[in-house]
């Protein structure tokens, strides 16, 4: 489940219990222990990329940073 925090950034929540705290090493919810599905992680990464693109188009693609001039 993806929701947006007050700043507009996406946050991933557990599909089972709604908890926002995950053990990223084991890909499990801290609250209920449910696995975080690959589809949920992929959807979160897409939402995060869209958020970055909306906020700063130059930083939407992190790999492109090495080809662009640094900002002061």
What does this structure look like?
- This protein is α+β, with helices and mostly antiparallel strands.
- 25% of the residues lie in helices and 14% in strands.
- It has 1 helix and 4 strands, in the order E-E-E-E-H.
- Strands 1-2 form a two-stranded antiparallel ribbon. Strands 3-4 form a two-stranded antiparallel sheet.
- The protein is elongated.
- The model has no long low-confidence stretch (mean pLDDT 82).
Strand content: 5-15%
Percent of residues in helical segments? 25-40%
Could you say which overall geometry the principal axes of the C-alpha atoms support? elongated
Largest sheet: 2 strands, antiparallel
Order of helices and strands: EEEEH
User: What structural category do the secondary elements indicate?
Assistant: alpha+beta
Cα distance spanning the termini: 37 Å
Count of strand segments? 4
DSSP summary: helix tally: 1
| Spatial strand order of the main sheet | 1-2
Rounded mean pLDDT score: 82
Low-confidence runs:
none
As a whole number of angstroms, the C-alpha radius of gyration is 15 Å
């Amino acid at each position: 489940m993806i929701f947006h925090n007050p700043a507009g950034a996406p946050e991933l929540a557990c599909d089972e219990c709604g908890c926002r705290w995950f053990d990223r090493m084991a890909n499990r919810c801290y609250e209920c222990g449910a696995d975080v599905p690959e589809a949920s992680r992929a959807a979160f990464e897409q939402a995060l990329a869209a958020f970055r693109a909306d906020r700063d188009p130059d930083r939407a693609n992190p790999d492109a940073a090495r080809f662009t001039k640094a900002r002061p």
